[in-house]
Amino acid sequence: MRTEPMLHYEPPLYRPPSEGRSVIVQATIGCSFNRCTFCSMYKSKAFRPRPRADVFADIATAARLWPDATRVFLADGDALVLPTDDLAAILDRLRAAFPRLERVSLYATPINLNQKPVAELRQLRENGLSLAYLGIESGAPAILRRIRKGASPDGIADALARARAAGIAISATVILGLGGRHLWQDHVDGTIDLINRAPPAFLSTLQLRLEPAETADFIARFDRQGIPFAWQDDAGILAELERLLQGLDPADPVVFRSNHASNCLPLAGILPDDRDSLLAGIAAARSGAPMLRPTFLRGL
Hints:
The protein is α/β, with parallel strands linked by helices. It has helices at 52-65, 84-97, 110-115, 118-126, 141-146, 153-166, 184-197, 212-224, 234-247, 275-286; strands at residues 23-26, 28-29, 48-49, 71-75, 103-108, 129-137, 169-176, 202-207, 254-257, 268-271.
């Protein structure tokens, strides 16, 4: 009996929810930064690029298995860290292997984007990279320091601007609850300022959830800076979401979503046009309408 070859994956494997039907090719293993205190995704892996030959072999296998694939997601944590020539070669191989390819996407960090000249980012766009997922997390300097993000609000804004100049769409995430009960207003107001300065094409919220192994270090960094961390309840999260949507006024339309499984209240719309209907949904939830996701259905 002949066995069809499969792609080689080093688990655990992560991808954005919207890439559920995409072919996943691991171009790197782990995350090149991997120090954010809220994130447990790649703590079990040592970062390294995969050999180009191995990536090409997986692309060839994927093309045999799914010849009509239209989307490819390049894992792991920040494949954009690869040298531009290596990433361009992977993109070229994908275009040759999948004749119906419409989109190639990957995770990126602000560091990745800021380390590449706009001309190189534009080259990658021409080679087929159309979308990058970027964790903003917060626009407040104090919060970014506490979560060890490795980026400032200005640095994140620069990264967003560079992607826009290159024609690469950004799907950004912010984390509700990241400032806890004591710093939530700073967290939200800083995020509003950042998004209004440099709006991404897509903006999604996550709701803070921590794995047990990350909880102690996350909370300790708040305590060391003099303000203890206190978890937000659903009422606090709804207040954050309301304040965020009231303040966001991007110059260009932004597709907004809070439908990730971690969120207590799923919402979807386009900002600023749908602001009133989104706020009406929050008001209904706050007044007791049965709109909140049951806690047993929430997760990372």
